[in-house]
Amino acid sequence: MRELELYFGPQHLGMVGNFSITLNVEGDRIIKAASNPGYLHRGFEKLMEYRTWIQNFTLVCRINVIEPDSMELMYSMAVEDLAGIEVPERAEYIRSIYLELARIGSHLFGLWAYANMLGFDTVANWAMYHRDLILDLFEEITGARVYHMYIWPGGVRRDFPKGLKGRIVKTLHKIGSGVPDYDDTFFNSRLFYDRAKNVGTVTRKQALEMGAVGQVLRATGMKYDIRKIEPYAAYDKVDWAIPTREDGDAYSRIWVVRDEMIESVHMIFKLLDDMPDGSVYNRIPNPFKWKVPAGETYVRCESSRGELGLYMASNGGDKPYRVHFNTPSYSHGLTILEEVLKGESIADVGNIMMSLYIVAPEIDR
Amino acid sequence: MDRNQLTKWIKSPGNMGHKYSLDVVYFCTGCGIIEIPPSITARWDAERFGVKPVATPRQANLFLITGYVSVKTLKAVIRTYEQMQEPKFAVGFGSCPINGGMYWDSYNTVNHLDKYIPIDGWIAGCMPRPEAIFIAVTHLWTLIDKEIADGYKRYRDKYKYYRANQEKVLGELEWPPLFPEDDKK
Amino acid sequence: MNQELKKKINSSFPSAKISLPNESRVVIEVNRDAIISVLSFLKNMGYEHLSMVSCVDWIKEDEFELIYFLNAYMENDEEYGEIEKSTILLKTMISRKEAKYITAIGIFASAEPYEREIHELFGIYFEGHPRLTHLLLERDYEIPPFRKDFDTRKYVKEFYEEIPFVEDREEGKE
Fold first, then answer.
1. Which whole number is the average pLDDT over A59-71?
2. I want to staple A219 with a disulfide (CB 3.0 to 4.6 A). Which of A180, A252, A290, B181 is the partner?
3. Structural domain boundaries, residue A63
4. What φ, ψ does residue A237 adopt, rounded to 5°?
5. CB of A135 within 8 Å of any CB in chain B?
6. How many CB pairs under 8 A join A and C?
7. B31 touches A: beta carbon within 8 Å
8. Interface contact C163-B168, CB threshold 8 A
């Protein structure tokens, strides 16, 4: 059969995010795939070199629109490390609760995209509605739905409003009450099984060779999670488990995501109970004259898509000298995707892409 | 809502027809796309306003340019816009297409999108809320009624200036002009 | 754990400068010829996850600093050991005038996009890399944009701001 070149994206119904893949196909089989990122490149790391330390705090969250909070955390942790700022204990707990809420929101967005891709419109609508409930909580805490700018060097911007604990519990119970419905219509459905089982399989060997992190790795059975390996915020203060699966295909990855959401909800309940009183931030120096001592640091955290790292170098000035974000989608989208798509059918491109949870703005930065 | 719907329907059935069925191109140009799924799903339900996403630009008449436009995206935006059937409306979503927004000093994003394609309206903010989309849509209705939303006509009339600007950023364009000079005569 | 690593590296590569800024970071500085052998040595030690390749432009010293970030995957799927806690920052300096280096794809397949990005944004050529084409950018810039001598604000002023609005073009102001 004749080999054809097919452009998949950026304007394509099966594509979430501004990203494109060039496919070489023979009939319906993909022979070769080449990722083509860069549609969202803004040169963040260059822009950050031109802005003061406090200005950057409002800029970093815009790197990843689906889960901006882990970017804020990364920046704050790096600056705290360089400048030697301590974080109060209550702020650590607030950060953890907040990041777990963001993780659930991000996973629900991923579930929307994935269910949409397979044609489960009902589930997609539920997921988006439930995510919106979490956005309402964010709005109450920070005043914004999407870009919160809440975690900053030295703690968090403000304390939780009065009575928020009850509302978080209520919202999470409301979302949790939907789990049986999700299971019946989607996760245990035969349609989902047939579409996702043995599709886009990343074996353990491939995963290790190509630098997989996050649920791609956890779907092959390894409990690789930075929250346990190198605990930050308050993750070492409570007890929680890491869900894994064995097969490494799209089906396992989505199940890991589902289990992770439920685990996050339980973790939030535990954190809310243990939360101590006290202040929520330590004062930082006058932001107009703030100079961070020279040095370099590398910090990492577990975002909703996998390990997220930040290398930051300062030369003692009022601006960072070099910033480099190591994002999980980078190796997932540019190395693993190209490898995994080989031999699959065109109809499964969106399926595989969303099960790997590739977020385009994070690749391009 | 309009009280004299009937007279409007008699006077300009075309305008009334397409203003209540604005079909949006499914194209995630920037981070503004994060507010589109909530708007089109159950909670905010954009279909109340006749807004729904469609698969290809050839079926669409509304182009929401959601967020910053990098040089590489600009090419795709122009091609998508040119593929849409007239009458078509383009709305800039978020602060970045208006004047660069957060990325005013980025070497890879264009600052004023209306230098390259005609824009009928802007939604300011970072990020604009779903309500802002609906206000923009209702506002676009009045613009269509008054026939001020004439971006596609401007594009036709001033095509050579738009094309000159596009070529300045993207270099020689790979596709032929949409409105060749000879056609007008 | 890291002390042992330090000893092992020192015995194999006496010229390497090793520092331990805190209990989970190891910074190794080697000269430019040794990188590939140190990378494969560390991979055999268990650090088989290249999480990032980064570059810093030290313009005053007239040098680029290449940094390879290495992590280890877990040895045991269930239990956490010591090895995956530490991140290795492997550094080397290359001259700014002769921005050329050797690719690490042979050892780490995941290095491919990172090196492509550095080639594009810093203008460092990686010998042996199979596709050093455009990754993120559409246009060519005279100076690669992430170098320190590329002033993005000046560039925006001189390029994007100079493009006239369509109305101005029509009136012939250009």
1. 87
2. A252
3. 41-364
4. -90, -20
5. yes
6. 91
7. yes
8. yes
Q: What is the CATH number of domain C2-138?
A: 3.30.460.80
Q: What is the CA radius of gyration of chain A?
A: 21
Using pLDDT thresholds of 50, 70 and 90, give the confidence band for residue B184. low
CA distance A98 to A268: 9
d(CA A272, CA A91): 12
Return the pLDDT at A170: 92
Number of domains in chain A: 1
Closest to C27 measured CA to CA, from C18, C36, C15: C18
Six-digit token string for B164: 């000159």
Question: Looking at the domain assignment, is residue A253 inside a domain?
Answer: yes
Assess A1–B contact: CB distance below 8 Å, yes or no: no
Residue type, A137: L
Gap between the Cα atoms of A213 and B83, Å rounded: 40
Task: Kindly write down the DSSP assignment for every residue of C5-19, as one continuous string.
Answer: HHHHHHHH-TT-EEE
Q: Given an 8 Å threshold on Cβ–Cβ distance, is C165 in contact with B104?
A: no
Which residue of chain B has the CA closest to C169?
A: B161
Residue B7 to residues A260, A343, B16, B19, C81: CA-CA distances in angstroms?
57, 59, 11, 15, 77
B contact chains, 3+ CB pairs < 8 A: A, C
Structure tokens belonging to residue B37: 């799924």
Closest CA to B38 of A10, A139, A169, A97: A139
Q: What is the CATH number of the domain that holds A96?
A: 1.10.645.10
Report CB contact under 8 Å: A11, B76: yes
Q: Which residues of A are less than 8 Å from C138 in CB distance?
A: 38
> Over 80: is that where the pLDDT of C79 sits?
no
Q: Is residue A182 part of a domain?
A: yes
Q: Could you give phi then psi for residue C126, rounded to 5 degrees? A: -105, 115
Query: Average of pLDDT values for A302-324?
Result: 88
- Nearest-Å Rg of the Cα atoms of chain C is 21
User: A106 lies in a domain?
Assistant: yes
Q: Inform me whether the C-beta atom of residue A170 falls under 8 Å from chain B C-beta atoms.
A: no
Angstrom distance (rounded) from CA A251 to CA A187: 9
Per-residue tokens: B137: 């849509």
Reported as a pLDDT band with limits 50, 70 and 90, residue A104 is very high
Q: A146 and B127: CB-CB below 8 Å?
A: yes
CATH class of B5-154: alpha beta
The model's pLDDT over C47-68, given as tens digits with 9 standing for 90+, comes to: 888 888 888 888 888 888 889 9
- Mean pLDDT for C138-151 is 84
Distance from CA of B32 to the nearest CA of A (A): 8
- Structural domain contains residue A23: no
> Does A278 touch chain C if contact means CB atoms closer than 8 Å?
no
Does the pLDDT at position B178 exceed 60?
yes
- Residue B72's CB is within 10 A of a number of other CB atoms, namely 25
For chain C, the domains span 2-138
ipTM entry: 0.86
